[in-house]
Amino acid sequence: MESHLGIFSTSINSTSFFTDETPPAKIILLFVYIFCAVAIFPFYFHVYGMNRKRDESTAVFPIISYFYQCLKTLYCYFYLIMLIAGLVFFYRSEKFIWLALLLYSLSFFIIPTICEVNQVIMSLLAAQRFFLYFFPTVEKYLNISKNGFRWLIWILYLLSFLKLIVMFILVFLDSVSIVYMISFFCFNVLIIGSTLMYIPIFLSIRKLSHLSSAKKNRPHRFVLWQNYLPIVIYYYFISHKPLA
């Protein structure tokens, strides 16, 4: 059982960013990332507000709205952790230390769960965009109400939470490795499948690159970067992280 517990501890151990041998470049990278993340969100907040009325009439608005609310929640959680960390640094209070440890520990369950659900949502968005682009007549069938999408979100989070419970129970049955590998395989198939759906869209948009509007906005390049940049980053981190 101890060997299987490593699956849950691996992410915690690998996420320890600072050690005695941490290179300065890695520390600088962390602070650059934090600065960019904090600086970008106000612009995202402003753009979302400007485009909200226009986006409400689109089929993908429930997904756009969900990601906005999700990002807002994560940023609030991030700011709370930074605030508690600052209080710990200045006051050295044991209460603040325990609160910081609690929030930090919860992040190892909250963030992976949110990322997993978000990836499923992104895959559904890829499928929706694919059908809307090539078969625009099916838009009325792909529109989802706010209540329907809200139920979908709850179901996805419930399934993700149940998966964590099942994996925790299977630790004591020495079967967690199989479930972990199946989950890891399905997750990667989902990522690759959603990525492949954007390729026909990219090729189709590229054929229109001779138009003046396409030359000005270059939508094919936007689709290309939107398609491959997340998957390159994901597999870069996966390649530097052991599975067990």
Give the key terms:
single chain; mainly alpha; 84% helix; 0% strand
Instruction: Catalogue the unreliable spans.
Output: 1-18
General shape: globular
Mean pLDDT value: 74
Radius of gyration: 21 Å
> Please, how many domains?
1
Number of strands: 0
The fraction of residues assigned to DSSP E strands is under 5%
Structural class: mainly alpha
Number of helices: 9
Report how far apart the termini are.
Answer: 13 Å
Order of helices and strands: HHHHHHHHH
Helix amount: over 70%
For the sheet with most strands, the description reads: none
List the helices and strands and how they pair.
Elements: H1 2-14, H2 24-55, H3 61-91, H4 94-134, H5 139-142, H6 146-171, H7 176-206, H8 212-217, H9 219-239
